[in-house]
Amino acid sequence: MMLSKGLKRKREEEEEEKEALAVDAWWLDPSHPAVAQAPPAVASSSLFDLSVLKLHHSLRQSEPDLRHLVLVVNTLRRIQASMVPTASLPPVPSVPAAPGMADNLLASSDAALSASMASLLEDLSHIEGLSQAPQPLADEGPPGRPTGGAPPGLGALDLLGPATGCLLDDGLEGLFEDIDTSMYDSELWAPASEGLKPGPEDGPVKEQAPELDEAELDYLMDVLVGTQALERPPGPGR
Amino acid sequence: MAGAGGGGCPAGANDLQWCFSQVKGAIDEDVAEADIISTVEFNYSGDLLATGDKGGRVVIFQREQENKSRPHSRGEYNVYSTFQSHEPEFDYLKSLEIEEKINKIRWLPQQNAAQFLLSTNDKTIKLWKISERDKRAEGYNLKDEDGRLRDPFRITALRVPILKPMDLMVEASPRRIFANAHTYHINSISVNSDHETYLSADDLRINLWHLEITDRSFNIVDMKPANMEELTEVITAAEFHPHQCNVFVHSSSKGTTRLCDMRSSALCDTHSKFFEEPEDPSSRSFFSEIISSISDVKFSHSGRYMMTRDYLSVKVWDLNMESRPVETHQVHEYLRSKLCSLYENDCIFDKFECCWSGSDSAIMTGSYNNFFRMFDRNTRRDVTLEASRENSKPRASLKPRKVCTGAKRKRDEISVDSLDFSKKILHTAWHPAGNVIAVAATNNLYIFQDKVN
């Protein structure tokens, strides 16, 4: 969408653009009397929409350009702030309701926007956690924070080792989400015995096959709880 | 366009008359993406000029020596070596392709017969050795001239191999690969004045490396917030001080520059100096932050000043004064009223570089429409020149260009609305000692020399 010399755009596009820019860009025109002294007061909704579009486009990239993303987000926040002049916008998704016809749209899109921004920025941090090599031991004594040089392929395996601090439990959860363990869940344990009710109340054993002897179950519970305690606190599911 | 240009500044002792010297690259309008030049850098002596492109290739040009029999080729740059520095890679863990585009090249000072340079893409830095071979050994005992091994039982006498001259061959070989230390995209590398270490900077972190050690680097700046949702600022450029090996600067997307001293603390998250010019309230707009984002920072050769490039201007700072720059040069102020459309087409995010002349008396930076700007700090004069094939007759003087903002366009002026925003000059370089400049215009490299030269 570059403005290149001599490139003729379709008439409809041009008209749309002129309309969007000419009508709504008045505040940027330094010769406009209203602008001469005062900084811009309110952004148009088209500038807001454009920014939202840019943000979504940026976030949709497999690896977003962080600088572009941050600049668009900050600009969007400025625009938002000008459109809701009476409310002070916190950085979190909850935006206080403001009067005005565009504000329903604003509030809903803002919440959705903030949520998507938040989740996607969070994703970025997960991605980093997954691929970051483990830190070398502190007693090596060099200045600064040593960063590892291990190849990225080892990253996933390293997560199974001692916690490195940069990993969240969610990150581990996410790793295994798409692995189908149903095959292992049912085969491992004893074949069905009639009349046995599925008994376990506790978390880790919840998904085991129900056809288990109660004594066996207790034994397994002990084993599992024992090993689980070493790795991490029992959470819901796997 | 032969002859001295009319309508420009009158010639004076300080005025340089820039002339076209050479242009490298394909002529056709259809530009292959891989051929787009992404970095340009002279070496310390200026005899070598390296370019990197989006296809991951490095091309090195060498300046011809003075030759009485071919006076016109004096000072010409010709291809010396070409090699593939980086290949596209696939990060299987993140399911992402890593671009082979060369983001930066930095030369090492020459210490022996070979030349060394660092080249980097988004994730990996490589140290390349470029060496000449102009002799080869002949008369081996164990193998014959074709290279085939001789039957040892047939060898009845021993001889000493002798060195014979051969056609010059320039070889490039990767000596070190510095990988896996950057989660985000590398935007800068800078060789330290100690010639043993260098820094690499990505959007959020800066690492310090030793040239001999590839499996470890030290993180010296970390701007990553604990919660990524709080991210509001990224690192845009970083450079070591030319003389003080403990000092470096890094610039940000918020228009601030921090100078750090590695002696004061191993972790340089806090700065020694903070350079920021307060915003002019009368020119404030929704795009204020974007246009204040610094795209390049360069120390002067003297080490007394540094220069920052933001979207519309170049600022020169005295390292002893943090509150405001000592000079501000407008690059293309006529774009200020067009910021909305430039935001729409993403041009407002373009990252222009800047450079100092060898004596620090002048600075240069690029603009749109293949224009580039030069500012003489002594005479306070500036000029706009164009890198184009039309103005490329041998040794033809470049005519100053002018952009007209008002309704009345003078004869040789070009109106703002006619500027070609797809022709941007992002990368320029100035010879460290003489008046030779290299300007990258998309896939073409222009070399201009001063007439006096």
Automatic annotation (TrEMBL), chain B:
Molecular function GO terms recorded: protein phosphatase regulator activity
Keywords: Repeat, WD repeat
Record-level GO cellular component terms: protein phosphatase type 2A complex
Keyword Glycosyltransferase: no
Keyword Repeat: yes
InterPro entries in alphabetical order: PP2A_PR55 (IPR000009), PP2A_PR55_CS (IPR018067), WD40/YVTN_repeat-like_dom_sf (IPR015943), WD40_repeat_dom_sf (IPR036322), WD40_rpt (IPR001680)
PROSITE patterns: PR55_1 (PS01024), PR55_2 (PS01025)
Family assignment from sequence similarity: Belongs to the phosphatase 2A regulatory subunit B family.
Matching PANTHER family: PROTEIN PHOSPHATASE PP2A REGULATORY SUBUNIT B
Protein name: Serine/threonine-protein phosphatase 2A 55 kDa regulatory subunit B
